[in-house]
Amino acid sequence: MKRLLLIMLFPFLLCSGKDPHGITWYSLKDGLELAARENKPVFLFLNVAWCDKCQRMGKKIFTDAEVLPLIMEKYVPVSLNPETDTAYFKNDELMDRKVFLTQVEPGKYAVMVPTTVLNKVKESAPLVMQGLIDPGQLKENLLKFLVQ
To answer: pLDDT tens for residues 18-38?
Structure first.
């Protein structure tokens, strides 16, 4: 019986904690707090589970040998699913999804997935990249954004 229980629990033990692709993702609230505390820009990845391009970004682009260390060392990686996450950011204010949706003008905030946003916590000029991004282009954008 103990052996059967161990066999059943083994897959769950393997999946806990860190993303299997090497990135430790933060929630929006925790990521913004950490970015402010460590004075690092935010690497925000807007994605949904059913999006094949989002999955490819996570498995092929973010795991690139030159991209992964840049994200992990120089940025605070935040993953946000606009369909399910409850925290949203508008005009430097973190708010609940229901509150955010009541304040949005119809059609004003369309979200395309995947979207990757580089943002410095105290500055207002984020870099928004929509769709699939080539690893070389992402690396170039990550490095350029750090020196702006």
So the answer is: 454 589 999 988 998 999 999
